[in-house]
Design goal:
Layout: E1 14-18, H1 30-47, E2 50-56, E3 61-66
Antiparallel strand pairs: 1-3, 2-3
């Protein structure tokens, strides 16, 4: 099932979850988790992403995020 998130207010926190196509266990390898964490750090420093919590499962990710002043759609 595919859904598009609708971020209506950039000043609110949002709970999001996402997974690779077919729920493949991508995040079991350290190199893939490191790429993901480096990407999040870049978005925090360069784009204003605020991450309040995250949990990486082998096949999907949960996050609580916000981005003051910038739409989360463009991150």
């Amino acid at each position: 099932m595919r859904r598009k998130y609708k971020f209506r207010d950039s000043n609110k926190m949002y709970f999001i979850s996402f997974a690779p196509v077919n729920w493949i266990d991508v995040f079991t390898g350290n190199e893939y988790r490191e790429i993901l964490l480096d990407s999040w750090k870049y978005c925090q420093q360069a784009k204003g992403l605020e991450i309040f919590g995250w949990y990486i499962m082998p096949s999907h990710i949960y996050m609580i995020v916000s981005c003051h002043g910038v739409s989360l759609k463009i991150l």
